[in-house]
Write a structure and sequence with these properties.
Shape: globular
Distance between the termini: 76 Å
Length: 189
């Protein structure tokens, strides 16, 4: 009886071990370039996503939403990163889980974005004039933040931004980087 119990336990352990192993076909090493700002979007919930280029797309004009995190990567606003990462296909294990896992192997480069560069971030959008989706918040103290906690310095545009938010308008902001890890709003579209 003990032999059968031990054999059964050994068999189950082997099954678990085989099932949890990842084949070499499921893992590849890729190079990612991560942009100096995040972009607003929605993947189940409103969120600020990395913009990336991968491998042969690096250096081009197109940046793509990156819906995953990168284990071990410490992102700092205002810098463009070049990363070597392990990309593992894990399958969709949970209904709301992703099928790809990224893990930082090496930070190849980190370059500060030019101080005079301007860029656009989606601040809110509407759908068929019936649904309004903001990607920023306004506190009781009239300060604004993106969903990832980045502070928006709206300077002389605070009143206009407040009005557009109250009117539930689609808004795109034009920004520059500020010294204190915040974003300076320079125009509204």
């Amino acid at each position: 009886m003990k032999f059968i119990s031990f054999s059964m336990i050994l068999f189950i352990a082997c099954l678990i071990s085989v099932a949890s192993c990842t084949s070499d076909d499921d893992v590849e090493i890729v190079t990612l370039k991560v942009n100096h700002f995040k972009q607003s979007g929605n993947s189940m919930i409103p969120y600020q996503f990395f913009l990336v280029q991968q491998d042969v797309a690096i250096g081009g004009d197109d940046w793509y939403f990156f819906y995953n995190g990168i284990e071990g990567f410490d992102y700092e606003l205002g810098y463009v990163y070049t990363l070597k990462v392990e990309k593992e296909i894990i399958g969709n294990l949970m209904a709301d889980g992703g099928s790809v896992k990224y893990k930082l192997i090496e930070e190849i480069g980190k370059e500060k974005a030019p101080s005079d560069i301007s860029f656009e971030i989606l601040l809110s959008r509407t759908y068929d004039d019936s649904f309004f989706e903001p990607f920023f918040t306004k506190s009781d103290h009239s300060t604004f933040e993106l969903l990832d906690g980045t502070t928006i310095d709206c300077a002389n545009l605070c009143d206009e931004l407040t009005e557009k938010l109250a009117a539930k308008e689609a808004i795109t902001g034009v920004f520059h980087h500020s010294e204190n890890n915040s974003l300076e709003l320079t125009a509204l579209k």
